[in-house]
Amino acid sequence: MGYGLLKGKRGIISGALNEQSIAWKVAELAHAEGARFVLTNAPVAMRMGEINGLAEKTGSEIIPADATNDTDLEALFSGSIEKLGGPVDFVLHSIGMSPNVRKGRTYDNLNYEWYKQTLDVSAISLHRMMQAAHKGNALAEGASVVALSYIAAQRVFPDYGDMADAKALLESITRSWGYRLGKEKNIRVNTISQSPTMTTAGSGIKGFDGFFGFAQEMSPLGNAPAEDCANYCITLFSDLTRFVTMQNLFHDGGFSSTGVTREVMAKFMQEE
What we know:
The protein is of the alpha/beta class. 44% of the residues lie in helices and 15% in strands. It has a single domain (10-266), classed as Rossmann fold (3-Layer(aba) Sandwich), CATH 3.40.50.720.
């Protein structure tokens, strides 16, 4: 049962591929909390996913858009205004992809054309979205923008490859737009640094089981599930967080603040 946190609000949710997706769960919760929104994803991702079923379930419109194509993004925001009846109150950026990671290229052997794609799809796309929204006056006063990140932006996780660079850039773009949009229209822009999560994108990373298991044992609360990340997104879309902006907010069960745990130490201690 919802609390009406987003009653009357309009939004755009990107990246919902299937029921495993955090964006999918955000859409379900936003609907339960009273929001109306447009779903969007790249045309190729939409052919792979099940977004039509989500749209039907939540009474949402779908506007396909390649997040690396400025014309598509301008059409996304103008179309959203038309379909929803006004500027949007929230945007979820849940977009990430690395050809280098997918194809097993290590960080010391990157294909630089693929590297550019990683940065464009996973980080610069947020800048493109915000620029298109800004130029089209598509964000309402006090709107909230949330992008999903990972702690590899601050710490080294060897198999995360060039996605770590993309997440660092994503967080920097968040701060820069957060300052400008906050001064202009009290718009908030934040990232959520989520635990390793069993999504289609996450599980495609080499050694993901190791990422997941290590974080689980290092986190006093355990890894945060996708559903709870969606709950966090909803609070950031709501009016309860009107003065939270330009932040990278860890949603990781305490992983980011834990030096070591007894469970991890036990794996290295010799029996007396």
